[in-house]
Design a protein that fits this description.
By secondary structure, the protein is α+β, with helices and mostly antiparallel strands. The chain has six helices and 16 strands. It has helices at 9-12, 45-59, 71-76, 81-94, 201-206, 215-219, and strands at 2-3, 14-20, 23-28, 33-37, 66-69, 105-111, 114-117, 126-132, 139-143, 148-151, 156-161, 166-170, 189-197, 225-228, 231-235, 242-244. A hairpin with a 6-residue loop joins strand 15 (231-235) and strand 16 (242-244). Mean pLDDT is 94; it is low at 6-11.
Amino acid sequence: MTHNPQQSHAQNLLTSFFWSGDVIRSRRVSDVVLSGTVDVPEPPARLLADWAREIAFRIILEPGDVEVMPLARARVRWPDYSRCVRAVSDWTSSRGLPGVLASSDVALMACRGARYHHDGEQYGGAAFCNLFLSEDKGQDVHFPSLDLRIPLKRGTVLIFDTCQPHGVIQRGSNGFDVADYPSDQDCTQLFLTWELPIEDPAVGQALKVTFDSDLSNAMMTNEEQVWLNGERVGVRPESGQWRRAD
C-alpha cells in the first residue's frame, strides 16, 4: 500500500536540510508512506523473555520512549532472524528497491508508545524501513500531517521519510497520552529498523523526493534541520503538530 495524499500548500514548503558528505543539501520532505504486511514468525519464547528483562532492568523503558536494544545478542537466540530480513528484502524489492537493505545499517529498537517527533535533525539523509515484531497491542503508527494511521501487528512493514512527524499511539486516541501506557500492561513494541540512504536513486524515486529545493539556504546552514514556510520547526510531542523550533 502506498499513501501519497494531495500535497497542501504548507506541505509543499516543508524542507529538509541534511548532510550529503561534507556539505548540507536541501530536499522536499516526502509525504509518501509505503506500508504492507510480511509473513514473519513469532520470536522464540526465550528471546521474548530476554527482551522483557532488558526493558525492565537495563533500559527502563518509560511511556513514549524509543530505545536501542542489543541486536548482536538477540541474533544468537533468534534462528529466524535471517528469515525476517529476507521477508523485508523481498517486500522492498517488490516496491522497486532491490538490494537496498543489504547496504543499509540495521538496529533493533523498542518503544512503549512513542511521543510524536521527527528525526530530521539526525537522520535527514535517510528514510526508515521498519519491521514490527510484536503482536497487535492496540497501537497505531500515526502520521498526523498526512492524516494516516497504520495498525501495528507482527509483520507490519513501513518505509517513510525520517522528517515526517510520527508517533506510536493508542488505537482510537487522538494523540499521545502517558496514561495510555500503564505499568501493569505490556505495551512495548519491538521492531527492526533500517536506515535507507535518501540519495539512493531508487529510494528517492520511491518516496518522490525533490532534491536541491532550497540551494541558497542550504549554503548558509551548518546542521541538519527541518523548515516549514521558511522557519525552522519542531514537533509537539503530544499532538504531532509543527511548532517553531526552540
